[in-house]
Recover the amino acids of this structure.
């Protein structure tokens, strides 16, 4: 799988985003591509100078179970480090069991965030 940065005007990215709820324009997206076809996406949004939010990680159903979301998450973390973020957050509903399992296995810690919502947070270190 190839992971690429694409502009929000990219039609394949637009199709993936349309499969989800609308997202603010200040999100930077990465796209997972297999055989030239966009099959996954995920975004990074700056909350402040040191904190980023990973949002809208999505893999087309036919491509799930192949570790694509994990690869995409790692690429988003690298992008966050490049932007100077040392804290990353993800917010999700408690019913998103696959996303919860991925977050926990990637080192994110659960932080309660209101009824039916859970925030996961990870502190990342910049290499010296």
């Amino acid at each position: 799988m190839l992971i690429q940065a694409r502009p929000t005007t990219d039609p394949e990215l637009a199709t993936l985003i349309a499969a989800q709820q609308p997202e603010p324009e200040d999100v930077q997206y990465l796209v997972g591509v297999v055989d030239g076809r966009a099959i996954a996406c995920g975004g990074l949004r700056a909350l402040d100078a040191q904190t980023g939010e990973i949002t809208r990680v999505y893999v087309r159903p036919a491509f799930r179970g192949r570790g694509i979301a994990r690869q995409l998450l790692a690429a988003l973390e690298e992008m966050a480090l490049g932007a100077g973020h040392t804290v990353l957050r993800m917010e999700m509903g408690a019913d998103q069991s696959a996303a919860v399992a991925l977050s926990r296995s990637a080192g994110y810690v659960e932080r309660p965030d209101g009824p039916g919502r859970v925030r996961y947070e990870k502190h990342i270190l910049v290499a010296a």
The two ends are 30 Å apart (CA to CA). Helices lie at 11-18, 68-82, 97-105.
